[in-house]
């Protein structure tokens, strides 16, 4: 195991401990979280803050290994079998505990039980799995899919089935351009919907699944696609926003048309003819939105967000990447279906192409357009794709603002002075004001939700919130999930 790989800093899949905690629960949460995620390593004998190699006591190191393996075996359900090895670096020996992704999810702490003892890994920390995530882990462990599960309380008639079949064929024909291909579009029947998992047969009765409810707009708390245009590169200032409901395939089309209305149109000379072209590859734009609808977690109580900024198009879908799926694999065409029934329906309707081809095609089309490679981000339970636009600078040079520039904390921002305690002035930067405006609109927002609103990373939000708390501009009342923010400034923020 290479030293630079082992000591690259704490992340989603690496955690360091100076020594083995006396209370095993202090690291057993991480073991469970690794097994419920994409695996990881616990390294004992390394300072988690400085990455200094402290090493383990060589006289008792094998007894320590036994105690670690016994604790993992006794504390976790189902059983987790770690791979424990020793590694000597700079004449000091550390213990490396490798936890592989588990096939029998969810894994949890026996002492706490399933609901209170299931943990997942988010941003380098082990967190208690929320209810929707626990349900998804249970389904994944049983090789079941939410979209193929029966939709409780929903009934379907033969007429309803025929109407959906007719509408799906119309959509497929609308998305087919050549006459020869149109004649190849087959009819959809009840049996086809059963084979996809859009319908299910139980005790001789045909019942609708969650996929059927989503495709017909009848899902309890039917999700929507939220679209918006923002001024600048953050979510501080809305220019326009829309929300599209109804069947999810109609939402995809409406969101796609919304983006086309808002992006720029240019021209290209093809011989002696002028050809109008959009600034972004439209097929890739549609693919981004369609993939979000096909692959999102419908258990998570959130909505797909399509946001257009001065420098990028951003599509965010609820639900972290599935087990054994990584961004590197996605770029190579690897795909693991979260919603196979919806994916089958979308593929038939020509809304998405063959499974696994979407991301490679988006990367290729952006390259052919002369755009930077789109950014794929797996963060805090959601997945996001950023497609960067071209911006014009002096002398007509096309440049694109990078993610590093976007996320860099600006030190030259304009400031606004406001009052906190009587007689005490505080200077606020543009980013300070952006966070305060979001909080003033909804004081109950969590750090993750603030990050989503602003288009920032959660770490960046934490930095500014901590800074504002230390300067007595805001304070948090209650817990991180159920509390609210209090603004301590005396005067209201100026309306922009």
Commentary on this structure:
The chain starts with a helix and ends in a 9-residue tail after the last strand. It contains 18 helices and 24 strands. The chain is 35% helix and 23% strand. With 496 residues, it is α+β, with helices and mostly antiparallel strands. Strands 12-11-15-16-18-17 form a six-stranded mixed sheet, covered by helices on one side. Strands 1-2-5-4 form a four-stranded mixed sheet. The chain has a two-stranded antiparallel sheet with strand order 3-6.
Summarize the structure.
With 496 residues, this protein is an alpha+beta fold. The protein is 35% helix and 23% strand.
Biggest β-sheet, characterized?
Answer: 6 strands, mixed
Count of individual beta strands: 24
Gross morphology is globular
Q: What is the terminal-to-terminal distance?
A: 54 Å
| Overall pLDDT level | 85
Which range best describes the helical content: under 10%, 10-25%, 25-40%, 40-55%, 55-70% or over 70%?
25-40%
Radius of gyration, CA atoms, in whole angstroms: 26 Å
Number of contiguous helices = 18
Portion in beta strands: 15-25%
Low-confidence stretches: 393-417, 419-424, 491-496
Strand-pairing-aware structural class: alpha+beta
Strand order in the largest sheet: 12-11-15-16-18-17
Helices and strands in order:
Blueprint: H1 3-6, E1 14-17, H2 25-36, E2 40-44, H3 61-75, E3 76-77, E4 83-89, E5 92-99, E6 108-109, H4 113-117, E7 119-122, E8 125-128, H5 131-141, H6 158-174, H7 179-182, H8 190-196, E9 199-202, E10 205-208, H9 210-216, E11 225-230, E12 238-244, H10 248-262, E13 265-270, E14 273-278, H11 282-295, E15 304-308, E16 312-318, H12 327-331, H13 340-348, H14 358-368, E17 375-379, E18 382-388, E19 391-392, E20 398-399, H15 403-407, E21 415-419, E22 425-429, H16 430-441, H17 447-454, H18 458-470, E23 474-477, E24 484-487
Parallel strand pairs: 1-2, 11-15
Antiparallel strand pairs: 2-5, 3-6, 4-5, 7-8, 9-10, 11-12, 13-14, 15-16, 16-18, 17-18, 19-20, 21-22, 23-24
């Amino acid at each position: 195991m290479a030293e630079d790989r082992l000591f690259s800093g704490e992340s989603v899949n690496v955690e360091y401990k100076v020594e083995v905690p006396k209370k095993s629960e202090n690291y057993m949460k991480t073991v469970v979280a690794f097994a419920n995620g994409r695996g990881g390593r616990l390294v004992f004998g390394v300072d988690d803050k400085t990455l200094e190699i402290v090493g383990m006591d060589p006289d008792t190191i094998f007894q320590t290994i036994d105690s670690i393996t016994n604790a993992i075996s006794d504390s976790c359900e189902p059983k987790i079998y770690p791979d424990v090895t020793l590694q000597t670096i700079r004449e000091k020996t550390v213990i490396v505990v490798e936890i592989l992704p588990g096939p029998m999810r969810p894994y949890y702490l026996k002492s706490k039980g399933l609901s209170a003892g299931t943990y997942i890994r988010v941003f380098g920390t082990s967190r208690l799995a929320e209810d929707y995530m626990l349900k998804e882990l249970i389904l994944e462990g049983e090789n079941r899919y939410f979209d193929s599960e029966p939709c409780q309380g929903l009934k379907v008639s033969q007429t309803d089935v025929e109407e959906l079949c007719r509408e799906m064929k119309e959509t497929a024909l609308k998305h087919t351009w050549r006459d020869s291909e149109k004649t190849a579009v087959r009819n959809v029947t009840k049996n086809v919907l059963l084979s996809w998992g859009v319908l299910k047969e139980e005790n001789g009765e045909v019942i609708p699944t969650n996929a059927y409810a989503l495709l017909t707009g009848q899902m309890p708390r039917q999700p929507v696609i939220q679209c918006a245009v923002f001024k600048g590169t953050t979510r501080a200032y809305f220019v326009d926003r829309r929300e599209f409901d109804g069947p999810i395939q109609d939402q995809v089309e409406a969101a796609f048309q919304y983006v086309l209305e808002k992006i720029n149109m240019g021209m290209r000379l093809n011989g002696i003819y002028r050809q109008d072209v959009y600034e972004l590859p439209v097929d890739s734009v549609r693919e981004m939105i369609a993939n979000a609808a096909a692959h999102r977690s419908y258990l998570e109580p959130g909505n797909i967000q399509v946001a257009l900024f001065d420098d990028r198009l951003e599509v965010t879908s609820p639900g972290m990447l599935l087990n054994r799926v990584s961004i590197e694999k996605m770029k190579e065409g690897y795909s693991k279906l979260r919603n196979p029934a919806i994916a089958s329906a979308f593929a038939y309707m020509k809304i998405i192409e063959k499974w696994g081809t979407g991301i490679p095609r988006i990367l290729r089309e952006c390259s052919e357009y002369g755009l930077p490679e789109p950014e794929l981000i797996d963060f805090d339970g959601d997945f996001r794709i950023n497609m960067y636009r071209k911006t014009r600078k002096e002398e007509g040079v096309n440049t694109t603002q990078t993610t590093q520039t976007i996320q860099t904390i600006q030190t030259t921002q304009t400031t606004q002075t406001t009052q906190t305690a009587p007689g005490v002035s505080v200077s606020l930067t543009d980013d300070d004001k952006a966070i305060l405006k979001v909080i003033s609109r909804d004081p109950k927002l969590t750090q993750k939700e603030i990050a989503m609103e602003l288009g920032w990373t959660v770490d960046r939000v934490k930095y500014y919130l901590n800074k504002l708390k230390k300067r007595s501009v805001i304070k948090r009342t209650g817990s991180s999930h159920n509390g609210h923010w209090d603004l301590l400034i005396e005067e209201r923020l100026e309306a922009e």
